[in-house]
Specification:
The complex is a heterodimer of chains A (214) and B (78). Chain A contains 7 helices and 2 strands, in the order αααααββαα. Chain A is mainly alpha-helical and 214 residues long. Among the domains of chain A are: 4-74; 82-112. In chain A, strands 1-2 form a two-stranded antiparallel ribbon. The longest helix of chain A is centred in the first third of the chain and has 34 residues, at 41-74. The radius of gyration of chain A is 43 Å and the shape is rod-shaped. With 78 residues, chain B is mainly alpha-helical. The two termini of chain B are 28 Å apart. Chain B has one domain (2-77). The chains are: A mainly alpha (214), B mainly alpha (78). Chains A and B meet through helix 1 and helix 2 of A and helix 1 and helix 2 of B.
Chain lengths: 214, 78
């Protein structure tokens, strides 16, 4: 927008206003430096004009400096201005990143070896399975089939309905919560509620007799 | 707003220069035909420098502003 030759505009403004400040200071000093007659018109003119000029030129100098800084910032020469809020936000972001990095490292350090986990699990489960009469690997029966005792009548077990099975499976399934880096929630937590959420509030209002008030 | 204030500052520099040139004669501490006093000479000298600088600076700044406006208009048209 303001790249290249148009910076001469700001330079000209800065130079002229700086010259004005210097000239104002000089005019303030001349009555004393050249010993003008005290309270004479020349001295009063020099003092008043010099003082006013210095103040006005200092304000204009500040304006040109602000304008040039804005132009440089718009052109990307200067970094964008950091407000207190953005500084605070950057600090929070850095702190959060530090925490995430630290927690990741801790997980990596503490994460157990999968092979070791499997070995430990097998050592735990093998006695339990052996006590229950279940073998890890199916083996061929040694006894011939003709000598086996007749099997008892199987007791009919009521099979759960498929919808109940699906509900149980869904409620036990753990899913990652959206927007969370860690932690899981049951899938039913994110499922569409069967009844509207406002139903409870409506019942409450009717029950307390405040429906008309609402 | 800030741009206008900066331009106004340049205009004030030019006006003060003009005033300093005219002040010795307007306030009659330099009589016509009399030898020039030190105060009058100083005021006219400083006023002349300020008026020239203010004039040049004002029009340089104005030209830069107009160039910026043209560049912005061309950029928005393309």
């Amino acid at each position: 927008m303001s790249s290249g030759p148009s910076s001469s505009r700001y330079m000209a403004g800065l130079c002229v206003t700086a010259l004005g400040v210097c000239a104002g200071g000089w005019l303030l000093l001349t009555p004393f430096a050249f010993s003008y007659p005290g309270r004479g018109r020349a001295a009063v003119t020099a003092l008043a004009t010099g003082g006013g000029l210095a103040v006005v030129c200092a304000a204009a100098l500040a304006c040109w400096a602000v304008l040039w800084r804005r132009a440089l910032r718009a052109d990307g020469v200067l970094p964008p201005r950091q407000t207190r809020r953005s500084r605070r936000s950057a600090r929070r972001q850095a702190r959060a990143e530090r925490l995430v990095r630290a927690s990741r490292q801790r997980e990596l350090v503490v994460a157990p070896d999968p092979a070791q986990v499997l070995t430990d699990l097998r050592a735990l489960l093998t006695p339990l399975l052996a006590d229950g009469g279940v073998e890890l690997l199916p083996t061929a029966p040694d006894v011939p089939a003709t000598e086996t005792a007749p099997e008892p009548e199987p007791v009919p077990v009521p099979e759960p309905r498929s919808s109940e099975l699906v509900a149980v499976a869904e409620s036990s399934r753990q899913v990652q919560a959206p927007g969370h880096l860690r932690g899981t929630r049951p899938a039913s937590f994110f499922a569409e509620p069967k009844e509207p959420l406002l139903r409870g509030a409506e019942l409450l209002m009717v029950g307390t007799g405040e429906e008309e008030a609402w | 707003m800030v741009s206008r204030a900066g331009m106004a500052g340049l205009a004030v520099v030019f006006a003060v220069g003009g005033w300093l040139i005219a002040a010795p004669f307007a306030l009659r501490f330099q009589r016509a035909g009399a030898p020039w006093t030190g105060a009058a000479r100083m005021d006219v000298l400083v006023g002349g420098v300020l008026a020239a600088a203010g004039f040049v600076g004002f029009f340089v700044a104005l030209g830069g502003r107009v160039r910026e406006l043209y560049a912005r208009a061309y950029a928005s048209r393309d």
